[in-house]
Amino acid sequence: MLSSTARRSLRGWMVSPGDTGWDVFSLDYHVDGPIATVFTRECMSHYLRVFNFLWRAKRMEYILTDIRKGHMCNAKLLRSMPEFSRVLHQCHILASEMVHFIHQMQYYITFEVLECSWDELWNRVQQAQDLDHIIAAHEAFLDTITSRCLLDNNSRVLLNQLRAVFDQIIELQNAQDAMYRAALEELQRRLQFEEKKKQREIEGPVGSDCGRGRGGEQEDPRIPGLHTKNVLQLQILTHFYQGVVQQFLVLLTTSSDESLQFLSFRLDFNEHYKAREPRLRVSLGSRGRRSSHT
């Protein structure tokens, strides 16, 4: 029914310097005819906000997939540089934490919010006696998905905190790309250095002094402090990311929505953050006692 009275189109937002396709792309619906009585302009603006939220979450999944691919590809190339094994391991651990977070958020949005809300809407529409009942059911559906996707006015702090988590995922991608570029450049220098060294050994003492320092000593192709800089950068990024997630969990546990409260359980499945944050121990423990009396 909707497909015959609605037209899909792509909407491009105003482009700012540094924006990518992910930042300016949006899917828009143009509704006319009798169905516009239910899908009003205000309703469609809610759908647009939900789509943009889902699109941003999907972008995080795409970025993390790209991070994992980069790790698998470059780990083999950098095998000859064992000093980078620690920083590669740190990247892998942090990316795994982020993958768990995004997967749990997507499960919550897809099944607990969208699927459950749609099932409830369908049941209410089936029982509707007139158009007013259908409109009321649809408005209730929109209110539910808007609030549980953290898009209502009461969830602004939570949404800002979630966006801060998303920002850290982008930061990891940028940091890892920069690290790989620097590591691969150094690997190339080392390979060239070894090639020149072999060439000098073949040519003997009458060969060229290319690749030697001013005093005739061989130049070290390694960049001083590069490994230490990468390790420190990842440690700072990990600390900041975990701090943002920790605050997000605290906000979830104090929410009046039980679905958001239980989301905090899944995000902190191994109680890593609970052990670090006293407010989470109090919130989770008190909620457990309340639920045991019901």
TrEMBL record:
Chief subcellular site?
A: cytoplasm
Q: Report if keyword Metal-binding is assigned.
A: no
Query: Where found in the cell?
Result: Cytoplasm, Cytoskeleton, Microtubule organizing center, Centrosome
Where are the compositionally biased (Basic and acidic residues) regions? 211-222
Q: Where is the Gamma tubulin complex component C-terminal domain?
A: 14-273
The protein's matches in InterPro entries, at most eight in alphabetical order, are given as:
GCP (IPR007259), GCP_C (IPR040457), GCP_C_sf (IPR042241)
Mind telling me which Pfam families this protein's record contains?
A: GCP_C_terminal
Region Disordered: list its residue ranges: 202-224
> Which UniProt keywords are given for this protein, alphabetically ordered?
Cytoplasm, Cytoskeleton, Microtubule
Task: Give the top-rank taxon of the lineage listed in the UniProt record for this protein.
Answer: Eukaryota
PANTHER family, alphabetized: GAMMA TUBULIN COMPLEX PROTEIN, GAMMA-TUBULIN COMPLEX COMPONENT 3
| Family per similarity comment | Belongs to the TUBGCP family.
What is this protein identified as?
Answer: Gamma-tubulin complex component 3
Name its species: Apodemus speciosus (Large Japanese field mouse)
